[in-house]
User: Fold Xanthine phosphoribosyltransferase from Candidatus Enterococcus testudinis.
Amino acid sequence: MEKLVERIKEQGNVLDEGVLKVDAFLTHQVDPHLMKEIGNTFADVFKDKGITKVVTIEASGIAPALYTAEALAVPMIFARKAKSLTMNEELLTASVYSFTKQVTSQVSISKKFLSKEDTVLIIDDFLANGQAAKGLIELCQQAGATVVGIGIVIEKSFQSGRALLEDMAIPVVSLARIASLSDGEAAFLEGDA
Ligand code: G4P
Assistant:
């Protein structure tokens, strides 16, 4: 997605250790126009898959996931990282290990929102080692739902996430693919859409 790549070039900052800061439009301040285009792009790619729910994880997955869900006219569910006081129903729960933070956290979704009747599109802001997406796939599997695709806004192709997800035979569509983040510069591969 040309416009996304341009925005990363203009406003992204490469931090040490292969981390890209995109807080001007995605992970802190959010650009609704860009998010809408991202949502429309994912919806266009997956429109014939019979999707009934879009699933993401808080916090930064929510904006692109919501616009995707709007474009597909289905609900969006975000997995929670901390148990909310009002989450008193039965939960689907998975462990997610963050290589970045070196901690394992529990992510959960209320059982009542996902069932075996659901066909799910997973959306997330970043794909690094794929642990967040793997956790979301586990939650869907626990519910008996079918995951038909994963839409990623920014893939760091030099990390292992894409291979992990492709090994699970789930199609991955990334709008921007980054080959390397060295010398303060992002080098791009061709995106999937
Ligand atoms: P993984 O899910 O692909 O295995 O990623 P990893 O454990 O390495 O990353 C954990 C968190 O860091 C995730 O967000 C992920 O989206 C984010 N992340 C990974 N690489 C980058 C990067 O280069 N730049 C930025 N800005 N974020 C990155 P999170 O902790 O769940 O945060 P949030 O969604 O609540 O903001």
Summary: DSSP finds five helices and ten strands in the chain.
